[in-house]
Design a protein that fits this description.
This protein has helices spanning about 10-25, 75-85; strands at about 5-10, 30-35, 35-40, 50, 70, 90-100, 105-110, 115-120. It has about 120 residues and is of the alpha/beta class. A 4-stranded mixed beta sheet has the order 1-4-3-2, with helices on one face. Strands 5-8-7-6 form a 4-stranded mixed beta sheet, covered by helices on one side. A hairpin with a 5-residue loop joins strand 7 and strand 8 (about 115-120). Helix 1 (about 10-25) packs antiparallel against helix 2 (about 75-85).
Amino acid sequence: MIGYVTLGTNDLAKAAPFYDAIAAELDTPRMMETESFIAWGKPGGAAGIGLTKPFDGHAATVGNGVMVALEAKDKEQVHRLYDLAIAHGGTCEGPPGPRGEGFYAGYFRDLDGNKLNAFAME
């Protein structure tokens, strides 16, 4: 159902390497780029993610309770994605581990404070 998710940034050049690293681990290349927007995804593939400077020119802000979940193929990839996020300036919101029966996830924020997780169903 979801085609893509867009997150705001106040510094696209600084934020892009964070998402490049995560997208590379998920084998998801940049598919569209302008001076104010980058999208990672595959035409006809799963939902992609976009990073943009807000169209209205105001500062990008974080939505309270908003989170983007990135599906990993297994627990090992959850750890790799979490580690990549932290290595690229992200902050921990909960290290990888079981989160209820059959659900394994690690939580982190990007450089602008947007919350994401990497998860795998066990």
